[in-house]
Design brief:
By secondary structure, this protein is an all-beta fold. The chain has a single domain, classed as Immunoglobulin-like. Helices cover about 0% and strands about 55% of the residues. It is built from no helices and 7 strands.
Length: about 100
């Protein structure tokens, strides 16, 4: 599989929350991780499973999506990196990599 890469700019106000739905591939061992750079105390990021759809459980091999929630804490600039990889393959390239330039004003 090849790595997918995308960059997005977000502008938030202090106290605002922004959710990013991330494709799940947990059945294949892939999980999402986050890293905040720049002014790291400008935002807080949490990762959790997306709500299950009404037709859950799905067919075998289906994975639940994940949600990254960004909370804007105070004015400043931060970068957020989200990567999807198998935890035991830290030396290999991420399956998917997303960069976010975040401005809180």
């Amino acid at each position: 599989m090849t790595e997918r890469h995308m960059t997005e700019r977000l502008r938030l106000r202090p106290g605002e929350h922004h959710e990013i739905r991330l494709p799940g591939r947990g059945a294949a061992g892939y999980v999402w991780s986050s890293h905040v750079g720049g002014d790291a105390d400008v935002v807080a990021v949490s990762l959790h499973a997306a709500p299950f759809p009404a037709d859950w459980p799905p067919q075998a091999g289906h994975s639940a999506d994940e949600i990254a929630t960004i909370e804007a804490l105070k004015p400043g600039q931060a970068t957020l990196v989200l990567e999807q990889r198998r935890p035991w393959e830290q030396e290999s390239a991420a399956l998917e990599h997303r960069d976010y330039d975040i401005t809180v004003a």
